[in-house]
Write a structure and sequence with these properties.
single chain; alpha/beta; Alpha-Beta Plaits; Rossmann fold; 2 domains; 6-stranded mixed beta sheet; 4-stranded antiparallel beta sheet; 10 helices; 14 strands
């Protein structure tokens, strides 16, 4: 008689007894200090059984951390590790269609952001309305304090609006809870920061692989090869095993772009990606963005450099939290 493959599923948080009973047939242990990780381990007969467990995780609104096949006996007919990726993508991180039914990929509707301060309310965004179609390269410009970064942060989910909506492929992303927002962002958005935000103790290839590890977007055995291809795309593959501190600022930004592309997101959001680079390096980064747009990506880039902005397909200008040119 064939033995069944054994899977281990980890979710964030400690579940009460009633919830753990929903995972009958699987052993349950807890790891770490609060907030704990709940680990389910047990045999699953086939792909449908795995789907059923993942569906229960989804129904309980639990942040999924990982799924792994950790053993098998005999010739067990269970599913392979590569087959795990598809149910994960289907349940947790649906990919965007190319455009919404109205032809727009991104819509900001009556977007308002008010910061409450001891000195009084500060309106950072005032009824912003903006639509972006797939394949556009949009440069967002304006003086310091005009609301550029705040608007991008609304799109990425880093910050939430006071009122209004951000629709991406007709999904109101701010109606998602934090765990679903994180999962959605990991699959659909690549974010490039002014100060790179590479993890200093990881090599470049490890930095690029990390988003794939967090989202389970590609089979484990494929991730390093994909990361290397992305580093080749941005012309720094020869530095793959170096730490960020061992390369230049321009090379770090290239690595950050490769990381943003790790899960093949349809949208790239970049906040002053050339702000700390010399002109020649900044020019090369914009050329790279243009190439990505030619490949079908949609890019929104905040910049203070009007010359670089002019190379985008469209310019949106903000002043005092309002769009004055689009």
């Amino acid at each position: 008689m064939n033995e069944l493959p054994v899977y281990q599923i980890k979710v964030q948080g400690k579940l009460n007894e009633e919830w753990t009973q929903a995972f009958g047939g699987m052993d349950v242990i807890y790891e770490g200090a609060p907030p704990q990780i709940t680990v389910f381990t047990g045999p699953l007969a086939d792909q449908s059984a795995l789907h059923g467990v993942l569906a229960r995780v989804h129904d309980l609104d639990l942040p999924l951390l990982s799924v792994a096949r950790i053993g098998i006996g005999g010739d067990g007919a269970g599913i392979t590790p590569a087959q795990i990726a598809q149910p994960l993508r289907a349940l947790y991180t649906p990919r965007l269609a190319q455009t919404g039914s109205n032809g727009r990929l991104i819509e900001l509707r009556d977007l308002v952001k008010i910061y409450r301060t001891p000195a009084g309310d500060f309106p950072a965004l005032r009824s912003i309305n903006l639509s972006v179609s797939r394949g556009e390269f949009v440069a967002v410009v304006g003086k310091s304090g005009s609301g550029k970064t705040t608007m991008i942060n609304m799109l990425t989910g880093i910050d939430r609006p006071t009122s209004g909506a951000v629709l991406v492929d007709e999904i109101d992303i701010h109606a998602l809870n934090e765990s679903k927002m994180s999962s959605w962002r990991g699959r659909n958005l690549g974010v490039v920061f002014q100060f790179f935000q590479l993890l200093p103790t990881l090599t470049l290839i490890e930095n690029v692989t990390l988003p794939m590890d967090l989202c389970g977007a590609y089979p484990l055995r494929e991730r390093r090869a994909r990361a290397l291809r992305l580093l080749e795309l941005v012309d720094i593959a020869e530095n793959a095993d170096k730490l960020p501190s061992e390369i230049s600022g321009g090379q770090q930004q290239r690595a950050a772009i490769a990381r943003a592309l790790a899960n093949d997101p349809p949208i790239i959001a970049a906040d002053e990606p050339t702000g700390n680079l010399d002109f020649r390096t900044a020019d090369a980064i914009i050329a790279l963005f243009q190439n990505l747009v030619d490949q079908g990506k949609t890019i929104l880039m905040v910049t203070h450099d009007n010359d670089l902005a002019s190379r985008a397909s469209r310019i949106v200008e903000l002043a005092d939290g309002e769009i004055i040119r689009s």
